[in-house]
Amino acid sequence: MRNYYIAGNWKMHKTRSEAAELAKTLVAQLKDGKHKYLVAPTFTSLETVGAIVKESNVLLGAQNMAAEEQGAHTGEVSVLQLKDLGVQVVILGHSERRHVYKENDALINKKVNLALKHGLEVILCIGELLEEREAGKAEQVCETQTVKGLAGVSAADLARVTIAYEPVWAIGTGKTATPEDADAIHAYVRKVIGKLYGADASAQIIIQYGGSVKPDNAAQLMAKENIDGALVGGAALKADTFVPIAKFS
After folding, report:
1. Choosing from 128, 132, 143, 166, which is the catalytic residue?
2. What is the rounded distance in angstroms from the CA atom of residue 39 to the CA atom of residue 23?
């Protein structure tokens, strides 16, 4: 039985004091929640938020990390530094990293393996551009990103990987894939995992949906057979929109 996993990606928003205020509210309002929860503040707020969510049912996530453990990498943040702050999960391959900052599958895969090596959980983001969907390539793009992103990941380590399907055209645009469209891609990705790791892994892997998830569409999305949670962007920035998503049922 897969457990729903609701994650909030705060992106480049909130000062430490603003992040602390939101984190305190979420800890209080989600303490009786029955799903798995995560918040991913910006790097500068990780320590502040980490102190607040510690001992709660809300995990601390980072939005990215370097592909190297340490060294001469100006401006980067290493897995060792994240672990030192109490980070438990790292989001990798987000569409903004892929398309704005030009991270390719090989770099993302290097990060995935490094994070797993150091005991972190990973949320691996996949998803197609609008022109790729219109060209009938959505499944192909998602399969390639999944296969290449998981290269070298053992079956045992896969248990610490969550896939987040984010159609790029639906992120921050107000557009949302229909629950049926989203579920179809989730089902396809589940088949890809089955080919790579077997039927049990396919049945067990958590696949989140991301892309303009809101309180009024969360329950419809989560009702689909292959959708196991949400990676929430804009609606994660306020408790009054994130909590209803987190408690959709």
Report:
1. 166
2. 8
**Nearest CA to 79 among 40, 112, 44?**
112
Q: Which of 35, 94, 96, 186 is catalytic?
A: 94
pLDDT of residue 139: 98
Domain 5-246, classified CATH 3.20.20.70, yes or no: yes
Give me the pLDDT at residue 233, please. Answer: 95
Q: If you count them, how many residues does the chain have?
A: 249
H helix or E strand, kind and range, residue 155: helix 155-158
The answer to whether 65 and 124 are in contact (CB under 8 A) is no
166 given a catalytic annotation: yes
Outline where 69-225 has alpha helix (H): 79-84, 95-99, 105-117, 130-134, 138-149, 155-158, 179-197, 199-204, 218-222
Rounded to 5 degrees, φ, ψ at 39 are -125, 140
Three-state secondary structure call for residue 86: coil
User: Around Cβ 75, how many Cβ atoms within 10 Å?
Assistant: 5
Whether residue 118 lies in the annotated active site: no
Residue ranges per domain, the chain? Answer: 5-246
Q: Residue 249 has what pLDDT? A: 67
Report whether 73 contacts 79 (CB < 8 A).
no
Which amino acid, residue 46?
Answer: L
pLDDT digits (tens, 9 = 90+) for 168-181: 988 777 777 899 99
* Alpha-carbon dihedral 86, 244, 188, 194, rounded to 10 degrees: 40
Mean pLDDT of 98-121: 98
Q: CA dihedral in degrees (43, 49, 55, 61; nearest 10)? A: -30
AA letter at 70:
Q
In one-letter notation, the amino acid at residue 6 is: I
